Each structure stands twice: as structure tokens, then as C-alpha cells.
Amino acid sequence: MNSAPVAPATASLDDPFYYLTNFRYVVSWVNARHHDLLSATERDAIGHFETLPQASQALLVRMVMRKGELFRLDKLSYAEIGDTEQALVPLVALGWVDRAPQLTSRELFRLLRLSELRQALADEIANAGLARNSTKAALQAAVEEKPLQAPAPLQQWWPAATTQVVRLTVMAFCDRLRLMFFGNLRQDWAEFVLTELGLQRFEQVPLTAESRAFQSREEVTTYLTLHRLRERLDDGELPQTLSTQVLPASSNRWLASRRARLLLTMGREAERGGDSELALTLYADANNSDARIRRLRVLERLGRYSDAYKLTISALDAQPHEGEIQALMRLLPRLARKLGQKVERSDRAEQQAAQALTYVLHLPGPQPVERAVAEALATPTAPVYYVENSLLTGLFGLLFWPVIFKPLPGAFFHPFHSGPADLYREDFVPQRQADINACLAQLDDGRYKETILRTWHAKQGIASPFVHWGIVSEELLALALKCLPPAHLRACFMRLLDDLKHNRAGLPDLIQLMPDAPPREPRYKMIEVKGPGDRLQDNQRRWIDFFCRHSMPVEVCHVRWQPAPEPEEIKKEESKQKKSKQEDAE
DNA sequence: ACCATGCACGCACGG
DNA sequence: CCTTCAAGCG
DNA sequence: CCGTGCGTGCATCGCTTGAAG
Ligand SMILES: [Mn+2]
Ligand SMILES: [Mn+2]
User: Fold this and answer.
1) For residue A535, which nucleotide's C1' is closest to its Cα?
2) What Gene3D superfamilies does the record tag this protein with (predicted)?
């Protein structure tokens, strides 16, 4: 394989220009791997950048790393750069910095502090009859109330201004660079620093020279466009305006699903604003499972039961995942009843198949419920751990480490991956089936224990989508391996692999480990704790159903707080569980 | 694994 | 005066 | 009562600083 080890990517923080070194690393990385995705202008820009004086490069990068693209010169001051004005000159000459940018009122309010705004907007304040001591928000509301506040330079908003404001005009390009490098926009320049500080560590996956997140410029642009729309939505722009600007779905499945998620949140905003019809359109267009469910609930709320019923039936027909089935099966009887159909009792009973042992604990409180139950149940020989998803996913992540970090093309493309880019995509498992089988085989022949422990030591602290190092201690790990039978692990791991995205959560709060239990007895049990008024979530029910079907020990513990401070008296009473034939049979 | 995701909590509805 | 919050930073 | 839906709050390095109220 044409792979090279990843060179240490992050600059030492002893270097006063460490951030510039990091930025240049990204630029040259993109230049090397995404050259064909850059426009001629962008290639020129990179060339120009490299010829700039160091201070100017550094100032540019300082601005890029900060929030927004507008900066007050009195707030742009860096020891290692020295004279800001001087560093600015070449940037202004290239047109990368605008020395007298037009400012909207919003921008003005972000740049000036309240005392300055009171001076700048003295007339407006007087005209609007605002109190002298009104808040920034009130002032802003009053100013934005006025029709057509045209953007203007600072000097026009506030002739007496003593500071200047500049606009970095190349922020969009720098976002594009960052996007091409990381394959997302959630990671940023701080990634380098946090890594250098040792606050995060990443697996070193060998990358081929060709590995990259995007295959065409259009893909990058699509991502950026969707992202901008999302930002504007978060910024309060109306879904009615924004929805018209959403491009048709990309043929790239990843981008298509990002688009669907944008439409979903736009739909929610439309709903919040009372525009159900727009919401319905957006949900229909999005057509991912969340959007399908939302669409049905809107239709139900609007009383369009027949439409909803038909869509429910077709959704059930279109390979819904378990979580979607749960929601659909809750909807179906309601809709059927509204349509005058008879709903049989068995329909409902069927979906709640297995029922776990459920009981009530009366504990002194209130206090954190999971802690309280853990303490109440723990004994010296049977400790209780508050692990939620961390233990099972952790064991999974450790055993399947080489699967998760297998250097497949497209899965890893920069040095800061906590997991493969395709982890939650359809073909993650098939792409790695042989390796997965090899890991599963270790559960059959017993090698898994050693592998898991060895990996725990070898990969300690390295970011993984499944291993939360803070919770899976060596002690817990050793005990868990002693107590959880491999057959049970295998079943859980298969379920995880079945749908990593939806099955990685919902595991019970607590696990009690009983290493000294007699041979035939179970050596562990899982307990989902529910405080007063809490109830099982869908994903929790799915896991509990699964545990029951596979005869794995799981309980649901409801907590009631004792009114009187009588801490010694803990009552454990069996509550009548809704019986199901399955349960009694086993 | 992204102002997100996973969890608990609290209120409202309708049966 | 306090306290609270976001930004900047390494 | 029950089962539902739905909105909310909480938490992500940890420190310093400046603005707001
Ligand atoms: Mn929990
Ligand atoms: Mn719980």
C-alpha cells in the first residue's frame, strides 16, 4: 500500500508562530491533495500568501482563528506580530482586508460596547424615547425596528469613533480550506493546539497520498452551501426564506443526508412558527426517518388521518430501522382508531414483547438517582458501576479497534480522526466484514480477553468513538471480562454492528458485577434506574427487549424518595409487572 | 460526530 | 460593587 | 391513573479577561 506514516502534524507551542506553522501545514496539505479542487484564483491566493512577510501571514491567521470576520484594530494586538498597521499593509494591498468595511447595524452592535453605542446612536436613542440606561438588546431592537438601516462604514455610524474596524475578506476561502482538510467544519485550528497540549490524542492511521474527504469541487461547495443555510437558520432567518434556497439533493449520499438534516431542522422551525404546510413539504423532501415521523405527527395534529395512515403503512414497508418502527407502531393504532378501525389488543401487546423485572426502591433523597441506587445495591463482593453506554461500547471499541481504524480509502484523511468517516454509513460493516469476523471469532475461542486488555493498555487515551477512557478503568474492565460471558458479548456486539448509529446508546445506567457468584448463577446484572416521573426511552426499551429475548439479566428500578429521613430502611418490593407469555415461559 | 447528542425532568393531552 | 457569560488563548 | 408527545436543561480543556447587567 502506498502509505506514509503521519508526520507529527502539530507545531510546538514554544514556537511563537505555532499557529502560523499549523495553518501552513493545512495549506500545503490541501495544496498537495486537493489541488484539482481549487480554483485558479485560490491557487494564486496560496501563492501570494507564501510570499507575504511573516508578520502579515501571522496576522491573517490570527484573524482567521478568531470569531467573525470583523475586527477592531484596538483589539488586534499581538506581541509576536508587533506593529499591526504595518502587518496589515500587504493584506490590504491584496484586497484580503478591507480597511473601511460597510457595517450592518447587527455588526455594529457586535463590535461596539454599550457605552460606545450610546454615543454613536445618541440621536436614535433620543428619537425613540429610550431610557438612558436601556440595555444593549433594547437598543438594538429599537434600531433594527427602523426601516432599511443601510450598511455604512464605522465613521458614518459614529463620526467620533477613535478606533477602526477592518474586515477579513478571505474568511470564506479559509473555511473552504479547513473544510477540505478536516472533511467537516466542526473541527478547527484549535485541534492542533489541543493535540499539542496532549488534551486529545488520535490514532495514527496510515494515509495514502490520495486520501481526501471530497472528490470534486462541487461536493465542497455543496457542503459549504448547506452549512451557510444552517447558520442563517440558527441566526433566526425564516424557514420560508431559506427553504427556497436549498439545492436539490446531491447524488453523494453523505451530502444528501446532510441536506435532509437541514430540511428537518428547517421543518421544525417552520412548525414552531406555525407554518405546518411548509413543514410538511420540508419533511417530505428530507425523507429521512426522523423527518418521516415528524411529517406523520404533523399530519395527525392537522387531523389528516387518512394521509397519515397511508404514509405510515408505506414507511413500515420501506425498511425502517427499529427506532422508526417503534414510533410508527405507536402512531398506527391511534390513526386506525381515528379512521374508525377496530384496534386489537394484541397489536399493542405484541410490540412490548418482553418485559424486564421491574421494582421500586424507596430511598432517602432527593439526590442523583443513579448514584443512590448504585450505593443501595452495592455490596463488597458485588460492586455496582454507573456506566450507561460506556462499558459495552467500550468493550466493543477495544475488541474491534483494528476494524474501526482500518485504513480504508475514504475513511481517514487527516491526522485528527476520532473514528472513520464512514462509521455510520450503510456499508461500514460489509466493507470490513472479514476483519469483523476475525474479531468475533476471538469471542468463540477465548482470545478476546487478552486482546481487549492489551488494546486497553496499548491505546490508552487515544480518541475512539466507542471508548470513553475516563469511565472504563482497568479494574472495571478486568471485572467485566470475568463476569460477562462471551456469548452475551457476542450478541450485544452483533446488535451494535446491526446499526451502530442507533444502537450505540440506550444501555442501562448501572451494572453490578459478581465475580464470586457460584458457577451456574449469573455473574452480572444491568439496572436501568428511573427517578420519579421518568420513563424508559425508546432506545432503552429496545436494548431491554433485546436483553430479555437473550435471557440477559436486566432490571428496571424505579426510585421513590422517602419523605422521612430514615436511611436504614430500604424496602424492595416487587411490583406487578405486565405479564407477557414470553416472560413466563423463560 | 459538529448548535449536537444522550440523558433526565416536567408539563400537557386524550383515553 | 458583585455575578455571569462568551471570547480568546495555549 | 395510563401512555404519549414535546419542550427544557445539562455537558463537552481549563484559565484569563472584558463586557453586561
Ligand atoms: Mn441514565
Ligand atoms: Mn436511568
Assistant:
1) B8
2) 3.40.1350.10
Instruction: State the distance from the centre of ligand 1 to the C-alpha of A549, rounded, in angstroms.
Output: 22
Judgement on whether residues A407 and A532 belong to the same structural domain of the protein:
yes
Nearest 5°: phi and psi at A101? Answer: -70, 150
pTM above 0.90, yes or no: yes
Same domain, A36 and A172: yes
How does strand A70-72 pair with strand A165-168?
antiparallel
Q: Are residues A361 and A327 in the same domain?
A: no
Whether any strand B atom is under 7 angstroms from the Cβ of A186: the reply reads: yes
User: How far, in Å, is the CA of A431 from the C1' of nucleotide C1?
Assistant: 64
Q: What pLDDT is recorded for position A42?
A: 98
Ranking A174-178, A232-236, A322-326, A327-331 by mean pLDDT, the lowest is A232-236
Task: State the residue range of the domain holding A320.
Answer: 210-351
Q: Is A72 a member of any domain?
A: yes
A391/A457 same-domain check: yes
Provide the pLDDT for residue A345. 58
pLDDT value at A353 more than 60: no
CA of A293 to the centre of ligand 1 (A): 25
- In strand D, the nucleotides that come within 7 Å of a protein beta carbon are 3-7, 13, 18-21
Half-sphere exposure of A99 (CA within 13 A, CB side): 11
**Same domain for A364 and A344?**
no
For the stretch A89-98, pLDDT in tens is 999 999 999 9
The verdict on residue A204 lying in a domain is no
Asked if A487 and A339 sit in the same domain, the reply is no
Between the CA of A506 and the centroid of ligand 1 the distance, in Å, is: 8
What is the Å distance from ligand 1's center to A358 Cα?
16
Nucleotide nearest A464, CA–C1', reads B1
| DSSP secondary structure of A348-377 | HHHHT----EEEEEEEE-SS-HHHHHHHHH
Task: Report CA dihedral (A387, A388, A389, A390) to the nearest 10 degrees.
Answer: -20
Q: Which nucleotides of C are covered by protein (CB under 7 A)?
A: 7-10
Q: Report CA(A510)–ligand 1 centroid distance (Å).
A: 8
Domains in chain A, number: 3
Q: Are residues A12 and A91 in the same domain?
A: yes
> Which domain CATH number covers A304?
1.25.40.10
Q: How many CB atoms lie within 10 A of CB A146?
A: 11
Residue A508 lies in a domain: yes
SS3 at position A87: helix
